[in-house]
# Entry
Amino acid sequence: MSLRVHTNRCKGCGICVEFCPKKILTVNKVEKVEVISEKDCIACRQCEMRCPDFAIFCTQITKE
# Structure
């Protein structure tokens, strides 16, 4: 799973941080969401579904 945060859309509300069951997201010093540990993501997509600004996207990585 690959997580992408569009910082131009992110307002740093922290909703995605609160709903992440693995706590792999944080709000940084400039009030933008940052991925702490992408490898620990369980692909639940709670961050993506809860973001009111559509600023975070989960993408499945497929191996060819």
Q: What stands out?
A: The chain has one domain: 2-59. The chain is about 15% helix and 20% strand. Residues 10 and 54 are 8 Å apart (CA to CA). The domain at 2-59 is CATH 3.30.70.20 (Alpha-Beta Plaits).
